[in-house]
Specification:
The protein is an alpha+beta fold. It contains four helices and 14 strands. Strands 2, 3, 4, 5, 6, 7, 8, 9, 10, 11 and 12 form an eleven-stranded antiparallel sheet that branches. Helix 1 packs parallel to helix 2, helix 2 packs antiparallel against helix 4 and helix 3 runs parallel beside helix 4. The radius of gyration is 18 Å and the shape is globular. The relative contact order is 0.23.
């Protein structure tokens, strides 16, 4: 689901005209996915050597060469929603190629900045054992803190927010329908979301099941919080006024 766009004057960077020039924008967590989340992630996975084939559910399934890692574009299947937004990508890992069940899953809605998802996939691909992790939750919070995010005063050991309080990464109860190999109830998993303005719909949401290694979540979080400008043609309507926009010459 693409965020609404402003159909304003041709010089307005928030309009959806595909012929509009590109812009450098920040912060990354409010930049959206430029309407090309499927293509950008697909290209990244192809570059990593992952194989792809369409499924009978009109999804696109990618599998790593060792068959331990998977990524699926599931938007057409509309599996469920996070924060009122349909899930677009599902990532997974399993301990052995013949394992029937994934050890963990991670879910991302459209609108998530594709740079953060690409960096996460590169980290997953580089892991010899993508289902195992030895770092604690502080790894995620430290990665965010290194990029200038601040810890929640009430939950300093589980939650961090950007300085503008428009995005949050938090360790909390695993949402319904999020699948993990651990069958115990009340599991804790990382959640992330962007809410440009209080009370408006979420720009994007992400959910990591309880068994996702913390260092992999940290790779996503660090990229999400990166101050590096990103290139966009289409900007989310609700982020207007929260983004720094520089016209590319």
């Amino acid at each position: 689901m693409e965020a609404p766009l402003y159909p304003h004057h041709p010089s307005d960077p928030f309009r959806s005209d595909s012929q509009e020039p590109s812009y450098w924008v920040a912060p990354r967590h409010l930049a959206g996915d430029d309407g090309v989340l499927a293509e950008q992630i697909g290209d990244a996975l192809a570059g990593l050597g992952w194989r792809m084939w369409p499924t009978t559910h009109n999804t696109l399934l990618y599998v790593s060469p060792d068959e331990l890692r998977g990524a699926e574009w599931v938007l057409a299947a509309y599996p469920f929603e996070l924060g009122g937004l349909p899930v677009a990508w599902q990532l997974s890992a399993r301990p052995h190629a013949d394992s029937a069940m994934a050890e963990w899953n991670a879910y991302f809605t459209a609108g998530v900045p594709y740079e953060a998802l690409v960096d996460l996939l590169v980290a997953i691909d580089a892991r010899e054992a993508p289902d195992l992790g030895y770092e604690g939750p502080e790894t995620v919070l430290n990665a965010l803190g290194a990029q200038g995010w601040v810890r929640d005063a009430d939950c300093p050991h589980t939650t961090a927010m950007d300085p503008g309080f428009s995005a949050t990464v938090s360790l909390g109860l695993q949402p319904p329908l999020v699948q993990d190999a651990d069958p115990r109830p009340d599991l804790m998993g990382w959640q992330a979301w962007a809410e440009p303005v209080l009370g408006v719909p979420y720009l994007w949401c992400a959910s990591f099941s309880a068994s996702v290694p913390h260092d992999l979540v940290a790779a996503f979080a660090s990229s999400l919080a990166s101050p590096t400008l990103v290139s966009r043609r289409i900007l989310p309507k609700d982020a207007e006024g929260r983004l720094m926009v520089v016209r590319r010459s």
